[in-house]
Amino acid sequence: MEDKLMLMIPGPTPVPEQVLLAMAKHPIGHRSADFSRLVADTTAGLKWLHQTTGNVLVLCSSGTGAMEAGIINFLSAGDRVLCCENGKFGERWVKLAQAFGLDVDLVQAPWGKPLDPEAIRAKLEADTDKQIKAVILTHSETSTGVINDLETISGYIRAHGALSIVDAVTSLGAANVPIDAWGLDVVASGSQKGYMIPPGLGFVAVSDRAWKAYETATLPKFYLDLGKYRKAAQKDSNPFTPPVNLYYALDAALKIMQREGLENIFARHAKLTRATRAAIKALNLPLYAADEVGSPAITAVAPVEVAAEDIRSFTKKHFDILLAGGQDDLKGKIFRIGHLGFVSGRDVLTAIAAIEAALTGLGYSNFTSGAGVAAAAAELAK
């Protein structure tokens, strides 16, 4: 059926009708007073969402563009950094750091497992000469459905004195990321995740400590020079031509989020996570990550008796529901259920029912019909 596709992936995520309608407005001049008012409103909303009084700057980019900006604005070639990797997006940090000539040290954990904060602490405490300039990590590892203990890790980073540079692409708007309370320095995210708007905007939150590092950073930059964005933001503007209609979308989405409230947003995502994981267990399918480290944005499933890609194909063909596949070495081994952003309990129940039908259609019988939906419903009713 046309126009019936349901996104249950970690991004792009579903977009509310109010946001889509806001995008349909005629563009306005990006140097006009009307646009300045729009920038002022969205800036206030972004600071609320990020729980910070510092800068939250808006780029015309994906989350990866925000990540790159997080490196080139605060570091210099040859700087020693500690990259923490336990999935594809942790690997992306390593590739970015190496591309810009940084001296990369690693803390790694197997895919599907969380980073060990104590391993990071040990590396930092061993650096008595304070050669490590930044610790770079992913909060919610989208490729595996694991969330890392950012609060504990950030405390160790602050004790050392290095900068924290964080990919919060699938945690911002789904999990609590209190930037000021945790003392985070550089936090990157993207619009097509918890923000509930289409791809195209990247966000970078910057602390005062990071701005001090900016003054001596020598990596080349122009379009992603955050100093330009900070200067423009002081005048409720943007240094280059921004996607005006995505600003309309951002404004509408932030207002929806503010009406729901931060605590309710986090509680909703936590409940959807519990419901999804309970359903998968009831279907006797293995979860890829343990409950205590499951991301509030994405649940990864590692079926054994039926192929992950067959499940994805069945739900897409018969129900117009899109589930995410595995990446790199996990391709064909897992499927991932996104439950972040504009997702409700009804969406989770629908997706689980489709997965149950797919399992039956594919000849998998190691579950009681309706068990997944019942388990999800029980969690959602709490």
TrEMBL record:
Ligand binding (substrate): 336
Gene3D superfamilies: Aspartate Aminotransferase, domain 1, Type I PLP-dependent aspartate aminotransferase-like (Major domain)
UniProt GO MF annotations: alanine-glyoxylate transaminase activity; L-serine-glyoxylate transaminase activity; L-serine-pyruvate transaminase activity
Superkingdom assignment: Bacteria
Record-listed N6-(pyridoxal phosphate)lysine modification sites: 193
Biological processes annotated in GO: glycine biosynthetic process, by transamination of glyoxylate
Annotated ranges, domain Aminotransferase class V: 11-327
InterPro entries given in the database record: Aminotrans_V_dom (IPR000192), Aminotrans_V_PyrdxlP_BS (IPR020578), PyrdxlP-dep_Trfase (IPR015424), PyrdxlP-dep_Trfase_major (IPR015421), PyrdxlP-dep_Trfase_small (IPR015422), SP_NH2Trfase/AEP_transaminase (IPR024169)
Enzyme class, first EC level, given as a word: transferase
Name of one Pfam family that matches: Aminotran_5
Keyword Magnesium: no
Cofactor: pyridoxal 5'-phosphate
EC number(s) per entry: 2.6.1.45
Keywords assigned: Aminotransferase, Pyridoxal phosphate, Transferase
Signal sequence, renumbered to the chain: none
Similarity comment text for this entry: Belongs to the class-V pyridoxal-phosphate-dependent aminotransferase family.
Name of the protein this chain belongs to: Serine--glyoxylate transaminase
Organism: Synechococcus elongatus (strain ATCC 33912 / PCC 7942 / FACHB-805)
